[in-house]
Amino acid sequence: MESSDEPEPTGVMVIEPMGNAGPFLVRAAARLGLRLHAATDERVHAGYDPWLTGALAGVCLTELADTARALDDMEAYCRAHRITGVAVCWELLTPLAALLAARLGLPGNDPLRAKAARNKITMAEAFRAAGVPVPAQVVVATAEQAHDVAASGRLGWPLVVKPAEQGGSWGVSVLAGPDGLDAAVAAAGRFTRAEPHGLPLDSRVLLQSYVAGEEFSADTVVHDGVPYPLPVVRKDTTAGRYRVETGHSCPAGLDPGTVRAVQDTAARAAVAVGVRNGIAHTEVKIPPGGGPVVIETGARLPGDDICEIVEAATGVSEAAAYLRVVTGRPPRIAPTRDAAAALRFLLPDRAGVVEEVVIPEVPGTHSRIDIRPGQRVPEPADSSGRVGHVMAHAACVDEARRLAGQVIADSRVKVS
Ligand SMILES: Nc1ncnc2c1ncn2[C@@H]1O[C@H](COP(=O)(O)OP(=O)(O)O)[C@@H](O)[C@H]1O
Ligand SMILES: [Mg+2]
Fold first, then answer.
1. Rounded Cα gap, residues 326 and 318, in angstroms
2. Rounded Cα gap, residues 115 and 67, in angstroms
3. Rounded to two decimals, what is the model's pTM?
4. What spacing in Å lies between the alpha carbon of 398 and ligand 1's midpoint?
5. CB contact set of 132 (below 8 Å; sequence gap of 6+)
6. Alpha carbon distance 54, 81 (integer Å)
């Protein structure tokens, strides 16, 4: 027990730690000897799992959708609790984190550019200004405008339709021709608030030219404006109208020159959206014969257990690197391990009520079921259609991918 006259150990304020990166932050904080505090809404806090409640040194209850109030509440809390860094898990909350860090005089991102790390319209402007390669894009307000842009041929086919502010492939469509454009614009424009905090969203719709080729993600940790590249991860997705991630693996299976090109592009993207002391998760595609083109970046840790994939493959803890830079210390990014990991999602064939899910237990793998019998699963059009996943750790990436693929092939998901 601490005696009451000893100062409280320093802590990091995580604006909404309930999310995929949360457990990785908790483990990294324990390793670094940092206490984690959370800022969240009362209703969201009531639903926290015991692993999270037990890991927190304190909670600032506020209303994250009300920026002015949240900043006041969090500032007061942080000043009272020896908070030396501000972190975040959710992309939509990254501008709030930048504002809070600036108010407290703590290391953080540029609050004036932080919106570019969540809003794909502002992001494209920031990328273009910085010379970061991106697909051509047009903002539309109606399906009629979308038809006009499509008919003009300036973006070509396939055409990508997506929301200005969303994630998890929600509302993203890839169209081969004008059929279905009305439905795609409606699907992309339907998001006005993001649950569970009720954050208001920019519901404008983007049309983008389609970037062909393989897809990768690369994270960048930034300390005092200097970007440090993290390992590149290969992304597998479905191929049709809906691009849902089906898996991730590391190492990415690219030659060293291409790895560097992806890391450099990701680093430029991170800096372009104002990441100065933080981390960015950047997605790129590499068209045949070309260099990496950025699909998006977010000023946050990756989701989809990519933190585990990267650490299992290389020994690098992205969560620890992030906590170090938000508390003003240089990150540790040198690989300490030469192994591999692969994750595959279990997707149903169609929407329905899940009747049965079986993921076999295979040595070298571990799995999780997210949607259980009796629950409804939507059509696998976005990340909400994932029934579960399997993670494989192995000595080389081909073996990790083979193991994860084998487990998925031997899994059963029956919907009615
Ligand atoms: N311009 C594009 N060209 C090719 N594929 C794209 C393009 N934009 C999006 N995609 C595909 O759709 C997926 C989801 O789009 P993204 O912009 O990353 O939205 P989200 O924020 O929902 O992840 C991407 O991972 C990629 O596979
Ligand atoms: Mg994405």
1. 12
2. 13
3. 0.96
4. 25
5. 126, 265, 268, 269, 272, 294
6. 18
Q: Which atom of ligand 1 has the smallest separation from the CA of 120?
A: 17
The rounded distance, in Å, linking the Cα atoms of 227 and 235 is 22
- Classify the C-alpha dihedral 248-251-254-258 as positive or negative: positive
User: What class, spelled out in words, does domain 136-209 have in CATH?
Assistant: alpha beta
Q: How confident is the model at residue 4 (pLDDT cuts 50, 70, 90)?
A: low
Domain ranges within the chain, ordered by starting residue: 11-113, 136-209, 339-416
Q: pLDDT of 130-172, one tens digit each?
A: 999 999 999 999 999 999 999 999 999 999 999 999 999 999 9
Taking a C-beta distance cutoff of 8 angstroms, is the pair 303, 245 a contact? no
Chain mean position to CA 155: 27
CATH class, 11-113 region = alpha beta
Classify domain 339-416 at the CATH class level. Answer: alpha beta
pLDDT tens readout for residues 19-69: 999 999 999 999 999 999 999 999 999 999 999 999 999 999 999 999 999
- Both tokens assigned to 53: 């409640």
**Phi, psi (rounded to 5 degrees) for 385:** -90, 15
Contact 175, 184 (CB under 8 A): yes
Best residue among 241, 283, 295 to mutate for probing ligand 1's pocket (most ligand atoms within 8 Å of CB) is: 295
What are φ and ψ of residue 386, in 5° steps? Answer: -90, 125
For ligand 1, whether the C-beta of 282 sits within 6 Å is no
